[in-house]
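DM from R.C. (forwarded with permission)

"hey, sorry to bug you on a friday — could you get me a structure for this? deadline for the figure draft is monday and I only need the backbone to look sensible"
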Amino acid sequence: MTEQTLLQGQDAPAESTISTANAAGQTALPEGFVRLGLAPELVRAVADLGYTEPTQVQQKAIPLAMGTGDDSGRFIDLMVSSQTGSGKTAAFLLPVLHTLIHQQAEAEAAARAEYERAAAEAAARGEAPPKRPKRKNPMHPRNFKAAVPGALVLCPTRELAQQVAHDAIDLVKHCKGLRIANVVGGMPYQLQIAKLQNANLVVATPGRLLDLQRSMQIKLDQVQFLVVDEADRMLDLGFSDDLAEINQLTAQRKQTMMFSATFAPRIQQLAMRVMHEGGASVKKIQIDTPQEKHANIEQKLYWADNAEHKRKLLDHWLRDASIDQAIVFASTQVECDGLANDLQQDGFSAVALHGALSQGLRNRRLMALRNGQVQILVATDVAARGIDVPSITHVFNFGLPMKAEDYTHRIGRTGRAGRDGLAVTFAEFRDRRKIFDIEGYSRQQFKADVIAGLEPTQRFPQGGRPEFGGRGREGGRGQRFGGAGRGHGDRGGFGDRGGRGERGGFGGRRDGEGYGRKSGFGDTSRFNEGPRFKDAPRFGETSRFGRGEGAAPRGDFGRRGDSGRGGFARPQGGGKPYAPHDARKRQTQRGGR
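My reply, with the result:
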């Protein structure tokens, strides 16, 4: 299977043009895309890219997006979920470009008919035919007009937007007069304004797009098709406000499409607000889920004692001769820079990529990766989406993602276009909660591997790993590390903790309700034998600010007294405690004098 081939069409002229091309001895065109009825120009571009058959997501999404079949002549909203590397980009680019090509052809035909009518009328009057309008230079200030695109693609990251724009340009190389513009932050405004002139399709990040719209460099009132790529990230908190504004600016559009590898239930609810009629007529396409194993990506897990141990494991793997190119994911920008510097010192061809770098530097480093000048890219999650380099054979999770669903996007950077890939994760024992979250999200359990000579010395607590599964019969979360916990079922926090469970948090026992006889973090618990302050009120015997002498129990604000602890008691035995009302009294007396 291929990764980014995607097209569908609907015209009979396409097949006649294709048969003529084959008769002339040209390169055979991909029959799978021909059957989709895509415009001939797009089919030729797909053939040039080396694709032969559409992927499963393309076969299902393209006809619906183009309004063919049962929905002929009608554009419907789509929500498409499919694994990374399955061809989602082409699945929305091909139908949108196909429609724009036909609309452009209809507009040209109408203009030609109008000119011929005017020429016929002039000839009937014995006049010379009217002159055809000259094409004006859009770069000249006198001819400047705000861009009025017919289609808009929104992406959460700059790298993804640039990748989508690059794919769109490859698909329209045989189309005359169809322009693609890329609008992202970190690039010069004047350059982007120039590229926006006469753009038919704009691929943008929300921030820069709204900046240009507010400065009247682009108008969105003619947008017919709105596509949200990686919609789960776009609909997250950081982009929800921008997307709501763009939704209002493009309220007249005909179609809304959302594509992503993952759609959490909360994200689906937010997505419905962007669809027509509140999502009443939206069609959902789910090719595969994150719970379905990536058949062509082998996944490995290695436990490490500490960061130094992880570094040794990574160094061992990076010296594998089978690695063509690799991405090493870090958790933070500081870790990303430090790891890239360490790899460079060790002789690896490595560069860092994260959001704090200038856009020009990020572009140059990505280009170096695509050109094979860099072997290892050390990146934060900014690169988890949008990097499509077929030569990436390995992905290493040196730092774990903050969200379990981001793991799916990370490992999707390898094994693309039907190729095989390898995803290796390094985790310390303190990270086991994140590992369990990833297993719970993907419904797949890691099988831990070891490297001879680099085995971890730490071990899981007695009871081992949890068995993967759902909730227990008697409660909600259940236990994490085995044992017999009641009240919260078979899976839960970090221990066999239950409302009435028999084992405590990290190994202590619970024999009763609440804070029982032996509980908490061991056998001699802070909450031993009953309530916290068994023999005393919370604030001492007298009052919150009372005297603390004698055998007063401990109060919240107490100092040491003679043999007890009370409210603000003086350290010497039997001494009179410092009372705030005494200080106020003395101050009043001094003021009176």
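R.C.: lifesaver. The two ends are 96 Å apart (CA to CA).
me: no worries. Residues 1-25, 466-581, 587-593 have pLDDT under 50 and may be disordered.
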